[in-house]
Amino acid sequence: MAETTQDRRKERLDRGIKVRTDSVYAISHWQEMTYMLAPRLVFILGLLALPLILSFFPYWQRVISIVCIYALLAVGFDFLANHVGLVSLGGGFYVGVGAYMAALLNLKFGLPPVVTVPIATFAGGVFCTLLFLPCLPLRGVYFAIVSLMFPLLAGRVIEALDIFGGTDGLLGVESFGNPWVERYLLIGSVLVAVFVLRRLLIEDVGLVFRGVKDNDQAVKASAINITVYKALGVYFASTLGCLGGACLTHIYMWAGLSQFALDYSIIPIAATVVGGGGTLIGSVLGCLILVPISEMLRDFGTLRIAVYALILTAFIVYKSEGLMNYGARKYEQFERWVRI
Amino acid sequence: MEIVIYGIINSITLTLMALGFSLVYGVSRLPNFAHGALYVLTGYLAWLLLNRVGLYYPLAIIGALALTGIIGAAMYYFVLVRIRGMPISEIIASYAIGLAILEGLRWGGLKGGTFTLPPFIEGSTQLFGVSVDYQRLIVVAAGLLLIGGLWLFVSKTKLGLALKGIAQDERAALTLGIDSDRMAVVSMALGSVLAGIAALVLFPLGSIVVEAGYQVLIMAVAVCIVGGLGSWNGAILASFLIGFAQILTVSFIATHFQVVVALVAIVVTLISRPSGLFGRQKELEERV
Amino acid sequence: MSQEPLLTVEGLSKSFGGVLALSAVDLTVHAGDILGIIGPNGSGKTTLVNAITGFVHSDRGKVVFKGRDITNWEPHRIADLGLTRTFQVMRPYYSLPAYKNLIVPLFSRRARRSGGWRGGGKTGSRDTVAVDILEEIGFERDSYVPYKTASSLPTGYLKRLELARCLALRPDLIMCDEVFSGLSMSEMASMVPLMEKLQMEGITLIMVEHRLRELFRLAKRVMVLNFGCKIAEGTADEVLGTKEVKEAYFGSEEEVLSHV
């Protein structure tokens, strides 16, 4: 709470309006109501209005869908890492599974995107969860390493066996048709995902998830099967990733090995770290910042990966709380120097 | 016979790739995911010193190794030391640094044309009726020398003993006046140099490419996990297991599966025996 | 005794990398009993608790609870059957308020099956039930203590919180791993009647202890472990009389024995 320097320290106190808003007064006065609702409304309405605002900049309009796909992955990563305690570096695997599943359903069975996206999302989530099931007892670093291996392995296996189009990928996947459908489907999904997961976390089951992360022994001693909750966490995260992957396939009309690529593993992590781990909204914010940067650097080829890898390092080392936690602190608390 | 000889060569290659990673993790519990990047970086530096600066080849090698050692130590001293003890942050940060180096090289250095280092000695010889070029024999010699040298260093010199002390029990070592942060810097420098040596003996066999960085990282992680993180004997044994498994898959199935073997080995080991072949029970409890 | 024992352990063994932590330990506990387990440091007491409750895989031996063989079951299944434990090194959820700590056990299937606490029905929210349990275990309801974050509570309350986590599951048997260690004299004095109350409510207790005086007030039967072997079992006086026990507690701890 407090940083100490030589003879003074910084004291942080909750603002009066924050304390009032936390309790029953929240609905009694327009000031408190505004205080409480403003940040949420800015986030929701801002995201919804984004495609309309950007309709003046057609180039950037295309980026929104990509931002949302990364945001879905980042929200999943944040949930899994900061609330279930499994750091999954294999975001690319979820995207790849979703993408290939949607593409295969579309090409082999001729199903339209309306059908392939939901199937790829939920069946893909189940598929990923089943594959990760044996790895769930692993902790921390070890889970991170295995999860990092999954997308690499999947790519190599497809390449080596020459299945699903091998290195060429699956071409000729049907597109969404209407770009507005595509944008609002993705924006809606991001909002729903953030809302549902945040809601989940303040329920009693959220405390169980938190227990699994901080103190798994005590949860086991409380007659609760932690593997079930870890699997549930992986299911949420992989479902979000598969949704992103399925949409990606229909946007680019193509599924290929690059969907298992590093980008999908590293940008969500960077976005979460930059945006502020644990807040879920922070990850979305991080994507809104990082993906356009990456898009601007597209001409420089792989330099963009180097750039956001450096941003990630800088944040994780020097500002590990991230933007969202920093912002929330400024919004809710005031600071002052106190002489000791 | 071919399988045996190339199996041994491949296994020692893997040991070389993994030694640096294993050393750093063993001493400072830092999973250095920038290992592969340091490997490629040394190759590129040596190429620069050789072709752009025009140094004599042995001098270029020494220069490249020294630079890599300094870069590795600086990476720890300026960045990683601040997140010491947070394993996930360590992985993400070191991986991100590695990524930045590799992709930066791909963008600014290693593009257009092929980049090769000349072999130390040209030509090849016959060994039990199998043709082996001298560079591969140098790889084997370098591997054996490094293993032997490290063993001597760790068990005979004061610095080595201090490193070993930190590796076994950090707190006890601290009470004996060993500065664990300084040892970590030393171990990072050493680990980077080891990655560099591996790069310099191995790159003459092919060309310097960015992908090698990822490949080496995967191999190093595979060897160390299968052998048990932090255990050197385990790492050597695991290199031979994976090395021979790879040669067998290459000769009987297909070349494509070479990396798959390593990846499968990691996943299977972690699932069935998380502490690796030589892991200790205490570590097992930390992991599961 | 005519009645079937609640918990039977036969020949339980466990070694860690060659060191024998438990060798062929037998024990039986009947419903409603309090069994004390004592022994010098490193004698395998905590390993015994871990092996019975499934936190450590035993190498050999058999654990039967309520007539079912639960050897090497997963810990959560054993707890689900009604055999719970406290941890010697307390493991609360430090960042949560004390009463929120109980939400996790109350969320378990076992707690939900039994329909809340003391027949409270499913209507009461878990928060209310949690505060009820805390009151029962000695957190004053009207004070701020149940609402303080666990990290700011003193050891005495954390030990109680450990017990409360077990009680939330409405267990049949609690294995207490050193509930008295680290407590002040007055805290210990208030803990003893609490344990007696639990026994009167029909909960069987196995208490692993260092504090012999308090243990002997509670436990009718005591067993002594040393180097992983059971070296004596019986009433407090019988056990303390045996030669092996005196040897095990040789030195400074002999004074402890003379105090009892």
Structure report:
The complex is a heterotrimer of chains A (340), B (288) and C (260). Chain A has 340 residues and is mainly alpha-helical. Chain A has a domain at 62-260. Chain A has helices spanning 16-22, 30-53, 58-84, 91-109, 113-132, 140-161, 179-202, 204-214, 216-221, 226-252, 262-275, 281-296, 303-318, 322-332, and strands spanning 8-14, 170-171, 254-255, 333-339. Chain A is globular. Chain B is globular. Chain B has a two-stranded antiparallel sheet. Chain B has a domain at 2-110 and 128-209. Chain B starts with a helix and ends with a helix. In chain C, the strands form two sheets. In chain C, strands 6-7-8-3-9-10 form a six-stranded mixed β-sheet, sandwiched between helices. In chain C, strands 2-1-4-5 form a four-stranded antiparallel β-sheet, covered by helices on one side. Classes of the chains: A mainly alpha (340), B mainly alpha (288), C alpha/beta (260). At the A-B interface, helix 6, helix 11 and helix 13 of A face helix 4, helix 9 and helix 11 of B.
The helix/strand series of chain A, from N terminus to C terminus, equals EHHHHHHEHHHHEHHHHE
Largest interface: A-B, 42 and 40 residues
Q: Quick one: biggest sheet of chain C?
A: 6 strands, mixed
Poorly predicted runs of 5 or more residues of chain A: none
CA(first)-CA(last) distance of chain A: 15 Å
Coarse structural class of chain A: mainly alpha
Sheet with most strands: strand arrangement of chain C: 6-7-8-3-9-10
What series of H and E elements makes up the topology of chain C?
EEEHEEHEHHHHEHEHEEHHH
Q: What's the CATH first level of chain C?
A: Alpha Beta
Helices of chain A, by number, come to 14
CATH architecture group name of chain C: 3-Layer(aba) Sandwich
Helix content estimate of chain A: over 70%
Tell me the overall shape of chain C. globular
Integer average pLDDT of chain C: 82
Query: Going by CATH, what is the homologous superfamily of chain C?
Result: P-loop containing nucleotide triphosphate hydrolases
Proportion of strand residues of chain C: 15-25%
Count every helix of chain C, treating DSSP H or I runs of 4 or more residues as helices. Answer: 11
Average pLDDT across residues of chain A?
84
Report, as a whole number of angstroms, the end-to-end distance of chain C: 29 Å
User: How is the quaternary structure best described?
Assistant: heterotrimer
